[in-house]
Amino acid sequence: MSVEQxxxxxxxxxxxxxxxxxxxxxxxxxxxxxxxxxxxRYQIGESLLPSTVHGVCKMLGVSEELAxxxxxxxxxxxxxxxxxxxxWTFSFSVSPRITGPKAFAYQVERAKFDHILLKNARSKxxxxxxxxxxxxxxxxxxxxxxxxxxxADGNEREVSATFVIDASGNKSRLYSKVGxxxxxxxxxxxxxxxxxxxxxxxxxxxxxxxxxxxxxDSGWFWYIPLSDTLTSVGAVVRREDADKIQGDRESALxxxxxxxxxxxxxxxxxxxxxxxxxxxxxxxxxxSYQQPSYWRPGMILIGDAACFVDPVFSSGVHLATYSAMLxxxxxxxxxxxxxxxxxxxxxxxxxxRREYSVYYEFLVAFYEMHVDEESYFWSAKKVTKDVEHTxxxxxxxxxxxxxSGEAVLAAKTRIAEHSAEFAAAVDQMAGGDDANMVPLFKSxxxxxxxxxxxxxxMRVVLGEDAEPELPLFPGxxxxxxxxxxxxxxxPV
Length: 492
Ligand code: FAD
Fold this sequence. Notes:
- The chain is α+β, with helices and mostly antiparallel strands and 492 residues long.
- It has helices spanning 15-25, 50-60, 63-68, 110-123, 249-259, 261-266, 316-335, 341-366, 373-384, 391-399, 415-430, 437-442, 444-462, and strands at 3-11, 31-35, 73-74, 76-80, 88-91, 105-106, 127-130, 133-139, 144-150, 156-166, 183-184, 190-198, 211-216, 219-225, 230-238, 271-272, 282-285, 289-290, 295-296, 299-301, 307-308, 477-479, 486-488.
- The structure holds flavin-adenine dinucleotide.
- Flavin-adenine dinucleotide is lined by residues 11-17, 34-37, 43-48, 133-134, 167-169, 172, 192, 234, 284, 286, 303-304, 311, 314, 316-318, 320.
């Protein structure tokens, strides 16, 4: 069997896999992505956050395609939750890290959204192979060295790579090669029963695209508008109430809807979709878990392969794409010889764990039903350790995926965009005709200094908007202006 060689091989072409593959390929590295299914394929997880839409998707270069796809615009969330009997609404526009016109995310049909990201990966140079199932992760004594997979024609193949990325979601067991077993949360152990309806009501404008989340005795419902007429509806029930979703799914869902007056009212004129991809009533465990380690030499876990936290704040795709971006930064830094693997991946894991923990801790407080929303806002401020902003601002930052303070995720005109322009100009000069310039600019060190210099200049232009990025942890790394790599922190 001939063994192909790549810099990176990615197992799984969901949002995490296509994001990491694209961001590494954009830096000129050889990337293979193996996806078991042939896209478009169904997936749950339809409500996105601004950090994904305006941060990661912008870096991937799919903003225009997303805008053209006509996904419903989600300006925030509406909750019937906690002590207050009436629904309350938050708007992403409250976040200090978002500028007005960008105060939204999308509600997406995942078959379409994931396909956009996968096609984009291919167009950015990733070798994408669909219908290919990774069956085994290969190792020598110290390192992971590649994978074995079955191709679309049923042939067994082997690939070797400097890095293997497990982005294969919550079901595959590839992650076990990193070591240790999944640590399941005792607190979040629910089951979801969900389907699709035509003709459900909409919230009043301007919030008709909001996610509506409604707590009731057995758990809570999500109600997500996917078009003017199509709605994704799911009941999440606690483990103790699991018998409520056993047996005939249709009767079970109808009984749960009847338990919840607001959802009954919204679905009063609607009919359930019973054919096509949306015709099935599906059940999923949504147990929260994390792996004890997110990497080992030669292998990295991202997205649901690494961890999952209760879906009430729609954080799944955010954690998937954010972890993919952090992993890509680490891989790009190592493959370019900027730093060693341990330094780069320690930063990856620390940031990823911080983001997971912020959601986890906040969600524990959010399930306290005897308090009102002011108390939830206060909890958000507490878990994010945000001393700069008000409680509601901290809450909206957290639920918008922005609490890390990462400039590249923030939905505002930012220094990184201008610095990226400067970096592109430097790159252009490096490839230009001036024979005297080329050797100088081709030097990696000189280019880095020029790019950092660009960042300083932009700070002068943008004033207080251009805060210098600080490490998230003492002694940690900072992000390069274009968000593609890590840099050592040099205090001024
Ligand atoms: P996936 O999207 O699962 O992609 C993994 C890919 O890997 C798949 O395409 C699969 O075919 C492929 N694969 C698997 N095994 C192999 C293999 N051996 N070889 C090759 N390919 C393989 N998130 C949100 O953001 N918003 C929501 O509203 C939301 N609601 C949710 C509701 C519920 C009930 C649940 C359970 C989750 C929800 N999520 C939500 C979470 C979201 O579904 C996931 O977090 C997200 O899909 C993770 O992306 P991923 O790329 O890591 O994995």
